[in-house]
């Protein structure tokens, strides 16, 4: 709430003909309508934090216990605010409309993008662009490619129920912790032995909870994790295989189980033509050597919700700088960004947006014989 209030008030201070609204309680939308009609381009920045205790030791470190912008979202906010200020000052040169979308809840299991799509934030948009600050790239580098770039981040919950008792007499119990350990091990076979090696997929158990004391075997063990894939057929197949494995292990040891599977956002797939424009922008601004085409990764992003409405592109801006000691990965307690990356992000957004607005203008002029 505090972050969205800050964003709203900062945009308000710009003036520049920005029309402000709050599509949801913790999101902000700013519309810049140019002097002449034309295309509509939406630019998105996510702005939520993570449940991480910051350990950067910086003077501006998070003051909220157990909450930190450990994924660069504060940088995304700064970049989009800077973009709004610059384009607002260039309003007389804007043909069409630019929407600055400050999105909430990207880090939550399904994300806030879906809510903004349902609220009509990108209705009528000709394209939607977004970026992410990437610790995997050196500062000064821009990563852009077409096609699938991020996987679908699905989530699962497993509960193994046994019969608890004294740790000294395990033969009188059905130990759910031992069963859970077997479940974790056997789930790895779903990818390694039950799916084609050419189909990228991951099954990761990331949380196990059970027990209250060193000498007590509990009644149940709870697990949570994620399955990542690009292909829809694989995404449909793997949960069934997972449940079969859990059932087989539980039955073999006389335990019972529950298995819940939740589909997350779809894979993020970059539109070829919009990606070409963004890549061209990066090469013109920073030179050939600054542009990289990163391979698809198993990270997930709810940015994919926007691609159901309009062609989209999601690109990376490097923030790693070994000389400054900025090397920790996204989501690490000591994650930091090289602030030299901020103007790079602003330039990318400003110039790519003007290119995308102008592309249709040129097409319409040519169609009229101008």
Explain what this protein looks like in three dimensions.
The protein has 370 residues and is α/β, with parallel strands linked by helices. It folds into 2 domains: 2-150 and 267-367, Aminopeptidase; 152-262, Alpha-Beta Plaits (2-Layer Sandwich), CATH 3.30.70. It is built from 7 helices and 16 strands. It has helices spanning 2-14, 73-89, 113-118, 176-194, 232-252, 272-286, 341-367, and strands at residues 18-21, 28-33, 36-46, 95-103, 127-138, 142-143, 147-150, 152-161, 165-166, 201-210, 216-217, 220-229, 256-262, 268-270, 291-292, 312-320. The protein has an 8-stranded mixed sheet. α2 (73-89) links the parallel β3 and β4. The longest helix is centred in the last third of the chain and has 27 residues, at 341-367. It is elongated, with a radius of gyration of 24 Å. Mean pLDDT is 95; it is low at 360-370.
What summary fits the major beta sheet? 8 strands, mixed
Summed over residues and divided by their number, the pLDDT gives a mean of 95
Counting structural domains, the number is: 2
Residues in helix, %: 25-40%
| Secondary structure tally: strands | 16
Distance between the termini: 49 Å
Strand order of the largest sheet: 1-2-4-3-5-16-6-15
The chain-level structural class is alpha/beta
CATH homology superfamily name of the largest domain = Zn peptidases
Number of H/I helices: 7
Order of helices and strands: HEEEHEHEEEEEHEEEHEEHEEH
Model regions low in confidence, pLDDT < 50 over at least 5 residues: 360-370
Shape: elongated
Percentage of residues in strands: 25-35%
The CATH architecture assignment of the largest domain turns out to be 3-Layer(aba) Sandwich
CATH class of the largest domain: Alpha Beta
- What is Rg? 24 Å
CATH topology of the largest domain, by name, is Aminopeptidase
